[in-house]
Amino acid sequence: MSFSKNYRPFLCALVLFPLLGCKDKDSSSTSQDLSVEIPFVVRAGDAELNCSTSASSIGLTQSTIEARDMRFYIHQPTLVTESGEEVAITLDQDKTWQRDAVALLDFADGQGLCDPASPETNTVLRGKVAPGDYKGFKFQLGLPPSLNHLDAATEPAPFNYPGMWWSWKGGYKFARFDFKSSGQPTFFFHFGATNCSGSIEAGFSCASNNSAIINIDGFDLGQQAVVFDVKTLFADVDLDAPVNFASGDVIKGCMAFSKDPECDPIFQKLGLRFELNAEAPAQTAFTLIQRP
To answer: In this structure, is residue 77 part of a structural domain?
Structure first.
């Protein structure tokens, strides 16, 4: 798969406008804004996880896992000041991974068990933000309802990746993590809105939009990377148990089927309760490390 990049050269007429700086007409950022790059990494405890490595001691059975796919969307990334003011990051519009206020992060490099036909990765969030003393980082894992039911067949990137479209739900997979475990050829975690009905033409409604708002305190911009820790995510899940056909749980993992028993312990690590109107604990799946 190859992508073309669009460059929009611009010219400052310094003779006619000596006091004005250049500004991209499609961006809300100014010449005073800071360029920011925020790396993301997938880890299993203390070890980085990629398509070429495995991770042990995962889940209730201390399983060993190998990655098959690792991707997720984030929406409206925001930096937070010490006083609690939230300042949105204006994402660079690269027309491949970032569009409007949405970014797709992709850690599957085509090695190991990952799809060799899709080796491209994107592990860094890029944009601009107003200068400030920032102490926190906030974003939504996934997509808001207004963007969740676009037509993936006609939308531009990053909304047109087939592997992130849930055809039987008419919406997107907010996050997709597929693994081989010690006891299962594939354990699926596909996170998204649940109990949705409707059509692209008429619109959709979902009983649970599953808006996971991730707040990370103590963020040092420029010095730290964001970690998605799968060891924490799957800590209370049996990744090796056989499929229970009698219960109707015919796919191993959590694909947000109604009453899926494996979903709630995973959702709780994202600060949600699966299909329950109950208070959830604070998210623990996302943490911080020093940038290399």
So the answer is: yes
